[in-house]
Amino acid sequence: MRPSHAFIITGRIIHQFLRDHRTIALLVIVPLVVMTLIGQSFPEERILDYIAPALLATLALFFSFLLTGVSFLRERSQGTMERLMASPLSRLDIVFGYLLGFFVFALTQTLIIVLFTIYVLKVNYYGDLWQIFIFQIVVIAGAVNLGIFLSTFARNEFQMVQFIPLIIVPQIFLSGVVWPVEQMPNYLQWLSAALPLTYAVDGLRGIMLTGKSLFDVSFELAILVGFAIITSLLAAITMRRGTGG
Question: 218 CB contacts (<8 Å, ≥6 apart)?
Fold first, then answer.
């Protein structure tokens, strides 16, 4: 893989997004509206403080996955992917370039959510803010790669969106966001252990609720890093030129 080639793709993605003013506006407005509604729905601060880490992890996964999946599918449907794969670029060059390009906007959206949650909704937390950011970066990297990988199996935006109830929603119910994993049946606990959101939720709760450091949640962090690496390799292996086939 040649980073210079990947950066060319990254630059094109960033330029393309910046030209779409409506999309940029939605990237900012949508998470603010969602977090405002969530904040107003919890009248007791203690409840919001407890559920905030799970919400931050979930929204980072959801928004990053949706942004990447739909955008990458559009690249394929417009024939951009076919032209790139006919060039000397390797599949890893292409995946890494798209990863960085989408990552910039996914990270921006996630930072907006985190800062709004802490400084506007006044959520109390114990860990260092920079460690929360670092942990979220790893979550986003996995979500972006997952979006690139799964978009390979969709032929249009409708099919891509259907991956949300198939891939994202079950993780919300099985990762401890809604109900403690320990109180689920054994077979669901085993399934929960295979879901990346479980480790994202546990890690962020450890940092924000008990003041743990990144070193203290290194196991969860390692799982999420491994997930990001595996999905990036799968994306490179399964990448197709267009939306047909």
Answer: none
